[in-house]
Write a structure and sequence with these properties.
The protein is α/β, with parallel strands linked by helices and 410 residues long. The chain is 50% helix and 13% strand. The longest helix is centred in the middle third of the chain and has 18 residues. The relative contact order is 0.13.
């Protein structure tokens, strides 16, 4: 019944967990806005989903990609960008695979085979390949032109092309980042002529959707270096913690009807969760998707009874305290010293006294005006604090780590 083999919680990165919590706004955006509009030939920007480690940004887009594939859309795998890697090589290889699946090698369009050959060269040599004295377009232009061909094939087959580029903050080369954003952005804004019933043609945009995911640092990289062009072509969302209600709603099937699991001899068995256990998981995970999956996973594995109890949650969490601490420390250790010091000074104050001037005083500064850019970044870029009156922690795990004995339980 309850065993690691039947555990529905997945405390790992880049997976789509069986027990899904929240992110309804982003999922609705795909199903009700982005896909319908791109499929209809209407313009929509690309989407940039950013967040600190453990916020579930990659899992979110992988779920969107899975939903897209289930209805017949053409989806790239998760194109993770390792540090120092050439993004055009990685994306060119993925687009070539989609082009093969779309049958472009059998296309009668003029120049398509030459274009495929050129993109194959990009997939081998990358954006830095020299084209001086050679026939054909620059690497990023060749990729763009193949994406246009792929988009036209998708129109004919009533599909949407979904491209997911992950860990975009690792693209450190400005030229590579520029070429990538231009190729993808030009594809999103490109219009083609299509025939309509009764004769004649109309212009429409390609059914291509692009998701970029990564750490919050990427918005500075792309925005500062590429300016308004990036902002016009990609809409950025920085994911914050889940609401406690999102987690309780995700656990409600366990509480009400139970979770079906395979039992012995092919018999389906049901595992339920005590309401107090669900509340304990919500409280311990502090809205962090990774910690939610971790708490659920450990509570499930700690026993074999058909009901997950609050004691199971507490016992399982004790074995996960180190991972929970490491999760928050990864967030804090990524911060510049000034931002890290800001959070510790803010945490040292009672919640009602967390004003900018009081935080500045706790840091030994003369006035809150000296902390304006720091507080703004922690709010709009990091999503860790909320600049209200008074200031508040948006990231509840960071607040709990800095102000209480969490993740230790009583």
């Amino acid at each position: 019944m309850r065993s690691p083999l039947t555990n529905p919680f997945q405390a790992g990165s880049d997976v789509v967990p069986d027990v899904w919590a929240g992110r309804t706004e982003q999922l609705s955006d795909w199903h009700q806005v982005l896909r319908p509009r791109r499929r209809a030939g209407l313009y929509e920007t690309g989407r940039t989903i950013l967040g600190e480690p453990g916020t579930g940004k990659s899992s979110l887009v992988r779920r969107i990609a899975r939903d897209a594939a289930e209805v017949g859309d053409w989806v790239t795998p998760q194109l993770r960008m390792p540090t120092g890697a050439d993004p055009l090589k990685i994306i060119a290889s993925a687009v070539l695979r989609l082009a093969d699946g779309a049958g472009l090698r059998a296309s009668t369009r003029r120049g398509v085979l030459d274009l495929l050959a050129r993109v194959e060269q990009v997939a081998v040599t990358g954006f830095s390949v020299t084209t001086r004295g050679a026939d054909g377009p620059e690497p990023f232009t060749a990729l763009f032109e193949l994406l246009v061909e792929l988009g036209q094939a998708a129109i004919e087959q009533d599909a949407v092309v979904v491209i997911h580029v992950d860990e975009v903050q690792n693209i450190g080369d400005e030229a590579a980042l520029s070429q990538l954003l231009i190729a993808l952005g030009d594809t999103l804004s490109h219009e083609v002529e299509v025939a309509v019933p009764g004769g004649g043609t109309v212009s429409r945009h390609l059914p291509v959707a692009v998701y970029l995911t990564g750490l919050p640092d990427f918005e500075d990289m792309a925005g500062a270096r590429k300016g308004a062009t990036f902002a016009r072509r990609f809409r950025t969302t920085t994911l914050g913690p889940l609401d406690e209600g999102d987690i309780l709603e995700a656990l409600q099937p366990f509480v009400i009807a139970g979770w079906e699991t395979p039992g012995e001899h092919g018999v389906v068995e049901t595992v339920r969760m005590d309401p107090a256990a669900a509340r304990a998981i919500a409280a311990l995970s502090c809205g962090e998707p990774f910690l939610f999956q971790l708490a659920g996973q450990r509570a499930w594995n700690v026993g074999t009874a058909p009901v997950v109890s609050e004691d199971d949650v507490v016992a399982g969490w004790r074995g996960a305290e180190g991972e929970a601490s490491a999760h928050v420390e990864r967030i804090l250790n990524r911060l510049p010293p000034r931002e890290h010091e800001f959070l510790r000074a803010m945490a040292s104050l009672p919640p009602a006294e967390r004003t900018l001037n009081a935080i500045a005083e706790a840091m030994g500064l003369a006035s809150g005006a000296q902390l304006g850019p720091t507080s703004q970044r922690l709010d709009t870029v990091r999503g860790v604090v909320s600049r209200g009156k008074p200031y508040a922690f948006r990231n509840r795990a960071v607040e709990a780590y800095l102000t209480t004995d969490w993740p230790r339980t009583a």
